[in-house]
Structure formats: structure tokens, C-alpha cells
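Example record used in the benchmark description.
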Amino acid sequence: MLLVVDDSHMMREFIKAAITESFPSVEVYDASNGKEAQQKLEAARFDVVLCDWEMPEMSGSDLLKWVRSTPPVKDIPFIMVTAKREKESILDAINTGVTDYIVKPLNAEVLCQKLTAVLRRLNQKSQ
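Model output (C-alpha cells):
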């Protein structure tokens, strides 16, 4: 199960469509901000989180910090999908424990390549 977190409905739908097309057996859920994502992460076990950085109520950076400090979910792969391309932002995300970082505008092929790599690592760990 994947969780897509973005305050843009269009972006959530684009990401969900790209994932569903490339990974038809994967269940994809979404949240419109970090607080909603936090509630979903507390209620169900997700395999990967794809998250925007700038959102109302709780930013992607704050959600990442919460995930990395919360034992039941701290090891979930977390991919930041954002327009923030400044070196400081990328370093901040890396230092906080982001698994990968994709800069918008989003390319479905790049998204699926990164997701494939993360899912491959998950499968290797579970074997």
C-alpha cells in the first residue's frame, strides 16, 4: 500500500494514475496534507509514502520528521516529491532521513523508476 500526500488534488491524481498504470496490483491511498497523512499512517500499514513538501496544516518536512521519530512507522520508505530544489532543502530532507527526492515538475517515468528501486529494496529486505 502506498500513500500519496499532496495538497494539490490534480497532483495526487496524476501520481496515483502513474502508479496504478505501472503497478496495477498496488493499492494507492491519498491525503491532502501532513495531518491527514499522519492519521492514515497511524491507522494502517503503508509500504511507501510519496509526499509534497509545502502543504497546509503540516508540511512534508514535518511529516517526515514525525515518521522518522515514530517507532511503528519510522522505517517506511519516504519519497519527497516537491518543487523545492535548493541545496539546503535537499540536504535538510536527506539529514532528516528521506529515502529519495524527486523535483517537480514531475515526470511519471522518473517517479516509477524511483518507486521501482524502493520497492525492489523492500522486497530484498523481506526475503
